Amino acid sequence: MEIRQSKQPNFFLKKRVRLSIMIGLLGVLYVGAAVILNFNSAAFLYLDRGMIWLFQNFIPTSQSITYWYSITQALLRTFVVAVAATSVAGVLALVLAILGAKSTGPSRTLSWVIRGFASIMRNIPIVGWAMLLLFSFKQNDFTGFLALLFLSVGFLTRAFMETIEDVDVEKIQALQVTGASYLQVISQAVLPEITTPLISWLLYMIENNIRDATLVGLLTGTGIGFVFDLYFKSLRYGPAGLVVLAIIILVIAVELVSNYVERRIAA
């Protein structure tokens, strides 16, 4: 009993020391960042004024409705680019995932190559892809499409590989023993098992790409991101607020449709 009582205070003391060190490090990092960036912490005191200004200027008015047509056109282009990039990425990622998964890949070397390729593609942020592609393809919808495509291929390839590797290996081996070809094994043992999770991943990627496409549009000068940037820089805050509202409505609508599709598939 004495040993337990002596160890318990030491345990809580170590926890408090670690917590104090962590808080101290965070404080040092904050102060250092504030000094380097010349950040004024007193700005937090005026946060309420900023929120009041935001609601006074960014709430869409009756005059903002006249911009609705151009906003919906840009929003539709953004949606089409996001869906197209996700669809093409889904096909490419499925092929790469089948070749790179441990249970279906033809060789370990190819599996490692594909895994490395997918890691590189998905770890470069969407802004990085957009800036790199701007040098070659300039400001157009195709640049945004490629930026979303490259990031989506990397993300979906890793997600699809993990999904394929969760398939029961005994089913694959059973078909191989009967003399089934490689394509027959994939079509009969793998694809039927992974259809539902693959659709879920694709729907998730579409939602994510719609959000990213808005940011990409700021750089590529296309879509809803460009429209927001144009209205904001020209001090047309009402229409800019309407753009934000349209994006929110689209994202919520896509999420509701995705949830409905997933429920129907699971039923």
TrEMBL record:
Pfam families, per database record: BPD_transp_1
Membrane topology, record value: Multi-pass membrane protein
Residue span, ABC transmembrane type-1 domain: 75-258
InterPro entries reported for this sequence: MetI-like, MetI-like_sf
Ranges in coiled-coil conformation: none
Keywords carried by this UniProt record: Cell membrane, Membrane, Transmembrane, Transmembrane helix, Transport
Localization per record: Cell membrane
Superkingdom: Bacteria
GO cellular component labels: plasma membrane
Membrane-spanning ranges: 21-46, 52-71, 78-100, 112-135, 142-161, 181-206, 213-232, 238-261
One GO BP annotation of this record: transmembrane transport
Family of this protein: Belongs to the binding-protein-dependent transport system permease family.
PANTHER family from the UniProt entry: ABC TRANSPORT SYSTEM PERMEASE PROTEIN P69, PHOSPHONATES TRANSPORT SYSTEM PERMEASE PROTEIN
Protein name per UniProt: Phosphonate ABC transporter, permease protein PhnE
Organism: Lentilactobacillus parafarraginis DSM 18390 = JCM 14109
